[in-house]
Amino acid sequence: MFRIDVITIFPELFETFRQTSLLGAAREAGTLSIETHDLRSYTEDVHRSVDDEPYGGGPGMVMKPEPLVRAIEELAGEKGPDREARGAFVVLLSPQGRRLDQKEVRSLAGRSHLVLVCGRYEGIDQRAIDLAVDQELSIGDYVLSGGEVPAMALIEATTRLVPGVIGNPESLVVESFEKGMLEGPSYTRPAQFRGQSVPEVLRSGDHGKISRWREERARERTQERRPDLLEQRPPSGEKR
Ligand SMILES: C[S@@+](CC[C@H](N)C(=O)[O-])C[C@H]1O[C@@H](n2cnc3c(N)ncnc32)[C@H](O)[C@@H]1O
User: Fold this and answer.
1) Domain 2-159 belongs in CATH node 3.40.1280.10
2) I need a surface site. Which of 25, 80, 105, 150 has the fewest CB within 10 A?
3) Nearest protein CA to atom 17 of ligand 1, as residue
4) CATH 3.40.1280.10 location in the chain
5) pLDDT the model gives residue 236
């Protein structure tokens, strides 16, 4: 079973998310576990405080290190050999992290236990990051108010690659970024819509022709929209 634990001050945000569609089905089938952990339950003061004013002054609040490190270590063990032996990997969602891409997603999907830490406020006390986080990942060069939406993006992208989560694994092979290209256009019924027809070849039943047509459209689209992907592509077109 692929296990994901999420540390957040808003566990309720994940409730419908983890029950819906592929994630819900995979959890019911026992392929996946997604549990949320309220950071406030790892506090030890009466006010259950998870944040405090920044040293040196400045706007906003900073997440305190004690509850965070306590939560992370309870779920993943101490950073280093203890954690490695448990097979856990701790990711902090952060705009300052390495940008998440399909290669990174593939590597995360190859693990068996992820602990995702969602920041809030102005960020997290640096000592908690140094002591307890294995990797910082960003979902793009913009700033959100919290790590929950980035954690959901990471969960969806990663779990799609976990065997058994997607019914037909064939659909993963043709997807954008898998062969260093974008996927080409898709069509469904009706064959005519507002004067526009589905390309004839897709209705021909000739699988060889269809697959060549798809490959050509994928290449064209990638050239037009993301030529950088073609430049990075290995010569054989195999997965990186
Ligand atoms: C308002 S942000 C803090 C931004 C921080 N003050 C800075 O300038 O780098 C609060 C939290 O949202 C999450 N977050 C915001 N943008 C993100 C992004 N692009 N990718 C991943 N996490 C993000 C992080 O967990 C972060 O700790």
Assistant:
1) yes
2) 80
3) 95
4) 2-159
5) 60
